[in-house]
Amino acid sequence: MATKGDWIAYKAIRDYWLIKCGLTNIASTSESILSSEEKEANAHLICSAVNACAKVNPDNPQAGAESIPALYKACRSIANTWRVGEDFPLYHGDVAEAKEEVLQALAKADRR
Length: 112
Hints:
This protein is α+β, with helices and mostly antiparallel strands. The chain has helices at residues 36-56, 61-81, 95-109, and strands spanning 7-13, 16-21, 24-28, 82-84, 89-91.
C-alpha cells in the first residue's frame, strides 16, 4: 500500500530533490546522474502522478494508476460520441459502446 497523503517535491540543496509525504522521505534524486532540470521535473512528475492516482482511487492508488489509460479512452469515446447542438446534445456514433467503455474504466478504477 502506498503512503497516504499528498506527495510533495522539495529542493533540499543544490540539485538534490526530496519526495516527501508529510514528514516521511519517500525518495530522493541524490544518486541520479541526470541534469538538475531533469531531477526537478522527475520529482514533480512523480508527485503529480501519485497524487492523481490517489484521487482516482484513494483506497488503492495502484488501481487508479492502472485505470488511467482506460479512463482516458472512455472520456475520448464519450467526446467522440456526441457534439453539442445549439440547444441540446446531438448524438452520433455508438452511445452504448461509449457507455460500456466508461463502465469498464470505472470498474477498473474502483478495484479494491
